[in-house]
Amino acid sequence: MSWFAPRYTTLWLAVLGTAGFGLLAADDADWGIPALIFAALLALGIVDLLQRKHAIRRNYPILGNLRFLFEFIRPELRQYFFEDDTKAAPFSRNQRSIVYQRAKQDIDKRPFGTQEDVYERRYEWINHSMAPVHIENFDFRVAVGGPDCTQPYSASIFNISAMSFGALSANAVTALNTGARKGNFAHDTGEGGISRYHRAPGGDLVWNIGSGYFGCRDADGSFSEEAFVANATSPQVRMIEIKLSQGAKPGHGGILPGAKVTPEIAEARGVLVGVDCNSPSRHGAFSTPIGLMQFVARLRRLSGGKPVGFKLCVGHPWEWFAIVKAMLQTGITPDFIVVDGAEGGTGAAPVEFTDHVGVPLQDGLLLVHNTLVGVNLRDRIRIGASGKIITAFDIARTLALGADWCNSARGFMFSLGCIQAQACHTDRCPTGVTTQDPLRQQALVVPDKAERVYNFHRNTLRALSELVSAAGLDHPSKLSAEHIVRRISGNEVKLLASLFPFLKRGELLAGTPPYEVYRKYWPMAQAESFEAMLPQTQAAS
């Protein structure tokens, strides 16, 4: 090879700089610093030539390292200098800014008109009324609790979605729960159990119980009634949520390595310190739709009659239909169902699961809402929804499609100061939100961030009240798909009510559903199993 090839220019400059400044430093010590700088660059160049891992560094010693530097800071460069204001990947600059502004009580108005292309396909808006109403109280709430619930809960229509201690730092959890207590809204624990940081502030909790049964498990990982009762009967626990699946990685379990199982995490989860903590991909306390309903009834009884429901990211439609058939067959209904969209997820997940597994929120919510309407159970069961919900319009649109309340995870993370660095899984979160590093999380000052959590919630609901008022309504629960419009093309718009399928009351029980998903998959569902029951013609072949 030629040592004088242009790609070695930087290396030779380092050699000349080291030699030249070295000679000057021999007579004048002031030249020592530049000599040391060039010597360090020369040492780096020699290391680049000798290493065998990166071809670009061997071919371009010293200079090749810039490639890795720019790759390392690419998210920051993109976010601060090159990112489009309206492109959501996963959240746009405008979406993050509105959270920051409302959390910090800054002005959340924008001059000079919309930045959206109102003639672009999929652009949506809410129709306003010629007779808007005045809404005095924007603390919008929904009563959660069916006929078998003796301790119903009056929930805010905007709450903190499931995020576990361990995924979030102690300071982040404390700030979230403190803000929830001040604003009188609910904080979902995530499946990592109820930690001391959830308990200390005293905010309302939705206890999320996943397949690992953290906080209610025996030594072998199976469900423990005794441990469940000890936590479920706490006055701070207002609802119990069985996690069937989540938007980030539906159908995928996980293991928390023993090295990350600290005494605090072990205390919250009911596991041993330093031992691998397994969260299976499916539950062990039940294996059939009927079993799930019996588990719901069991938890409701053990909790003293508190609302019990489940959370899922919709997958095979026949499995969801099987759960509904189990409700009809047993007469047991959950008090609520939370639909998580595949676009959701605060935790790290395999790329294929993040991008290509699970039903998005809009489609999952419509399927769940319509099915319950079609079997006359919608009045007994409340529906929560989560998945990229940030603004008051996001909430209004989601309620219009059938939800009773909305949850947000990343929205409340932004209110804590998250900058979307997307380093959540590295333990190097720059703002202290998703790290267990005690020094990093010290940067998150709890009193200040708790106030921002409270402000974000309050100001978002205030904005929602203004939207609802403009539509001529006095409560968000009166929103329907008749109020939201979507642009289909440059010269055509449609109401969501005419764009999406909606079942009539009892229509599914009548046996003549007008939509293909019900005609094909409802007959395949069976209350006794999550497996599809094939039509006789297919089974015979």
TrEMBL record:
- Do you know which Gene3D superfamilies this protein is assigned to? Aldolase class I (3.20.20.70)
Transmembrane spans: 35-51
Q: Which UniProt keywords apply?
A: Membrane, Transmembrane, Transmembrane helix
Annotated SUPFAM superfamilies: FMN-linked oxidoreductases
Glutamate synthase domain spans which residues? 156-473
Q: Which InterPro entries match?
A: Aldolase_TIM, GltB, Glu_synthdom, YerD
Please indicate if the UniProt record lists Iron as a keyword: no
So which residues are the signal peptide here?
none
UniProt keyword annotation of Membrane present: yes
Q: Which family does it belong to?
A: Belongs to the glutamate synthase family.
Descriptive protein name: FMN-binding glutamate synthase family protein
What is the source species? Answer: Pigmentiphaga daeguensis
